[in-house]
Amino acid sequence: MIIGFKYDKGSKLPGASLAPVKYVETSQVYSNKLEKLLLIDDISNLSDEEVEDELKCSIRNNNISLAIGGDHSISYVLGKTLRRKNSCLIIFDAHIDYFPNCSKKIKNWNFIEYTLEFYEKVIVLGSRNYEFKGREGSNSKIKVISSHEIFENIEEVIKVVYEEVEGIQSIYLSIDMDVLDPAFFNSVSYPLIGGITMNELLYFLRLIFGTKKVYFCDIVEYNPMVGDDNSYYFYQFVYYCRMLMEKSHIE
């Protein structure tokens, strides 16, 4: 089963909250069976403790290891709920969602600041938000690899990622759909040119899941309200990630 967050109040633009329902609707058209999705509605009125208790119970009772957003701020909620010792957060994202000391509210553009305490290190892959380049350098926990670096030498990037996670026991994987170039997927609130291809992303995912260290994965920022109709592509992508997780999931 997958958990879906109907939540986008961490974003300036609405629409990502519709992604879980759109996923279920698409599954009815293209799949022989209805996809089971545990939907989480608005969590903004709950305390952190209430959210954490509800998620722990839901995830444990339903053996869930994959989530659909929702905006990227849900990675904070899930990361806090599922935190483990000696773990690493790997993020695929066009943006470096790290603006230290800019807001006390957790948003999709600053959630990394608040998740740092849960992980030994954070690795961001596919960044190309060049107007804010260098901001992450103030924190030694954050390793950023741009989409340009991936394009120039993907095998070297893979080597670096392997080295970064070598001594890590567990990986939380977070995939922001805007990591993809808009030519391949443009149903996102904040698209940026110069992204990675779908094949490059799938290649990375096979290798990361292949480490057998991934204990949870979220897929966020699909916005059905903008761009082309990418609902079937999104459905296929989620299905692909679910298959990889089922083959390699750790307890």
Automatic annotation (TrEMBL):
Gene Ontology MF annotations: agmatinase activity; metal ion binding
One Pfam entry name: Arginase
Key word Hydrolase present: yes
Protein's GO biological process: putrescine biosynthetic process from arginine, via agmatine
PROSITE patterns per the UniProt record, alphabetical: ARGINASE_2
Highest taxon of the lineage: Bacteria
Keywords: Hydrolase, Metal-binding
Family from the record: Belongs to the arginase family.
Protein name in UniProt: Agmatinase
